User: Fold Acetoin dehydrogenase dihydrolipoyllysine-residue acetyltransferase subunit from Kaustia mangrovi.
Amino acid sequence: MARDVTITGAGGEYMDSVTVVEWCAGVGDTVRAGDTIAVVETAKAASDVEAPCDGTLAEIVADVGDELEIGAVLGRIDDGTGVAEEAPAASAVPADPPPEAAAAPIRRVRDGRVVASPLARRIAAQEGVDLTTVEGTGPRGRIKRRDVERALREAPAVARQAVPGGGRAERLFVQTRQEGGPDPVVFLHGLAADLAVWNGLLAKLGPSVSTIGIDLPGHGRSPRLKAMGSPAALADAVAETLLAEGVSRCHIVGHSLGGAVALALADSGALAVRSLTLLAPAGLGPEIDGAVLHGLARATRIESLGAWLGALFSTPASVPEGYAQAVMRRRGDDALRDYQAALAEELFPDGTQGFDMRPALERFAGPVRLIWGESDRILPIRQTRGLAPHVALHRVAHVGHMPQIERPDLVARLIGETVRSAGSLRDNDGGR
Assistant:
């Protein structure tokens, strides 16, 4: 049976892409679990990729020089246990196919064609960037992700106008890891974040869990949709995207604003939501530190962003090394910051939570678990008072608003317990 070799976590918890710099084994070579079989590189460091099992390297999916998203499939190992069973690799950026293939990456060579990494090509297609206008800074002029992002920063209005309205372009950005059971776990981040906030946690979940990370509208690589000023509107956009991906049943993990969106999605009935794991969800009380939200949304310099990010953790010393720099790299677009600041004002007018998700929480009949840091300064833990009796609450000492980063092992274990507890719902429509 073929086992995927993935690069989940290889780039560091807050990187969202890596470049393959070396293969230490070739197709047909015998490898043992723990052997270094490849080396990948980020902007900060090189990392070894280890074999997940004993066996024979059966396939190399990503070539040296390819840039891939965290979670992508690097290659496959035949462990000798049976017929090879190839898992879908929707989160991977496809390796370069032959030039005549329709999905082939464009290469810049002597005849004027364009060479771009798969990840750069994917972002350019989504944002409507003409790669012939982008100057590549990679080896031999290869266009990399940073080059496309630079082009977007230099001419964001033109780039956005190139994306046609409606249809596929309006779907949210999705990153999928299909390795586990039939009902995936969907991850929804908070305001001014993106799906990369889950990278460290996903590495703790193991290969038995199928996961789908989604960038909310106007975050990460998702389009800036209009009229998104409520959890219900955001939930509709998420539901439309999931249904388009063929997902009608799922578990949901939501953080902060993403927790409110998760509750709205479960309450809408658009999908069969089998369980909810909510990390300091918004919507359970009026209080919120609006100054921090607006500071995060508007920060244009690493110094100011780092100060605001410190408020999300139990202590400034708890902010992981490189976290602020990684977040800043993904927030170089003025239009993105303006969109998020306007969204914050709509959702949290005058520094107050403008919506109440308690009724939705009480109506959800499936397994539901809240994880809340006792040192949370954004959404105070006292908002958990008076919860419905079926809601499990985990108060986590010495943790702020980011339990998925400060205590990823604990959060991963609790997610697994919540998902497993939904087993009795397997034959019905979920928690409603």
About this structure: The domain at 2-78 is CATH 2.40.50.100 (OB fold (Dihydrolipoamide Acetyltransferase, E2P)). Residues 83-112, 156-169, 424-429 have pLDDT under 50 and may be disordered.
